[in-house]
Amino acid sequence: MDAAGTEFAGNREAMLAKLAELEAEHAKAIAGGGEKYVERHRKRGKLLARERIELLLDEDSPFLELSPLAAWGTNYHVGGSVITGIGVVEGVECMIVANDPTVKGGASNPSSLKKGLRAAEIAAENRLPTINLVESGGADLPTQKEIFIPGGRTFRNLTAASAERRPTVALVFGNSTAGGAYLPGMSDYVVMVKERAKVFLGGPPLVKMATGEESDDESLGGAEMHARRSGLADYLAVDEQDAIRLGRAIVKRLNWRKLGPSPKPEYEEPRYDAEELLGIVPGDLKIPFDPREVIARIVDGSDFDEFKPLYGTSLVTGWADLHGYPVGILANAQGVLFSEESQKATQFIQLANQTDTPLIFLHNTTGYMVGREYEQAGIIKHGSMMINAVSNSRVPHISVLMGASYGAGHYGMCGRAYGPRFLYAWPSAKSAVMGPQQLAGVLSIVARASAAGRGQPYDEEADKAMRAMVEQQIEAESMPMFLSGMLYDDGIIDPRDTRTVLGMSLSAIHNGPIRGAEGFGVFRM
Prior knowledge:
The chain is built from 19 helices and 16 strands. It has helices spanning 6-30, 35-43, 49-56, 110-125, 144-163, 182-185, 204-211, 217-221, 223-230, 240-252, 291-295, 339-354, 372-376, 379-392, 407-412, 436-453, 460-478, 480-485, 498-509; strands spanning 63-66, 82-89, 92-99, 130-136, 168-176, 189-193, 235-237, 305-307, 315-322, 325-332, 336-337, 359-365, 367-368, 397-406, 422-425, 430-432.
């Protein structure tokens, strides 16, 4: 790669432009409900959700925020009125979930629910304790039909975590009412802030309507009442800072130990500059790029032992270390997956499972090859072998969408539906059933055949308009911010941060045991 060339410079400028767009959207999530509601929150003497997280985390430790663009492209606030991510508290990696009370009082909408459920899934798969920073008015009532039924999983997940000996901690800073009252009710440890926390199934107006009883917030569900009378609060904090101190003390006494193998204590940084990752991916994804250039800038010492380098060359496979953790890497080279690549991937995935080695998938694929020659050579059964291997692999998987991720190639490279522990996207990524032009072209061919079958003339002008409309729609729906808004990834990351993000993800993964599959399904030979 010529880092001083015009092609590299053009790629870099295109990527920087995408990163600027991404930063603008992230700023919306960080801004919360806006200046008016932030100021109102501060006047009540309260910390913002991100300030609470910062105080909770160990000093100068990173926070791996997840799904920051949830709800992008919807009518809900970008971020989904909740912040989720993995951070280190008293040396323990924890899943942290914080309501943002500046956005509709922290009320949960459908995007909030999806984001919270994804956080719970990540915590369960990677054996992470969970700390909930609670201040929410409960469900966003106009959307109750979309969140009431599936929302029950939130509480089920808490009880399952406790049964699996994954501690859950609730720090209650404000309202936690109605169904939300069960969040502290089902947590292992509960801290409530004096004169601020309010936890009840029904507030004074509802109690008045239901029973005729007159009551006030404090006697009905105040922190002191729950600490002295009901016993729901395990700790009574004098203020928010004290609640966070108590939360850290709880984690300190968990006697938490990772079950996965430790990383190598010493390792080299990559020999190539991560800054150069900005110029590797072309603005036009039809132009191939060499994923080895990416691998050289993210793995320890840029040391990569390639497996089967002369066979199935459209897929690069091999072994490396990343922040001291051994990994296997599958990376698309030329976009299309043929039979050889599929068989190579299948064998490589089996080898990784034999050695209990996590796998990293670097996506840039347009899918499996089509055509008479390839069908006759068995592309369906060979592609199915690869998908079978991915489906039944038991070592942890992490996927990074660098460029295209289309069709069944998305599945074979461990897309969202195939359960990667984490899935990230670069701003250059696109994902759909197929490329916009191909999809529009298929619809055109089908429409022409249908018109011919009816003996009718074909409207070329309408066809042209249809193709333009479909291409525009699929292009928009393939973009990473659209997919991130739907929770189809765990975040869009700056390419320069890839090594750090993968390292933090691998560290979180190693809270649990790493064990490969003991058997696979039937491979059609």
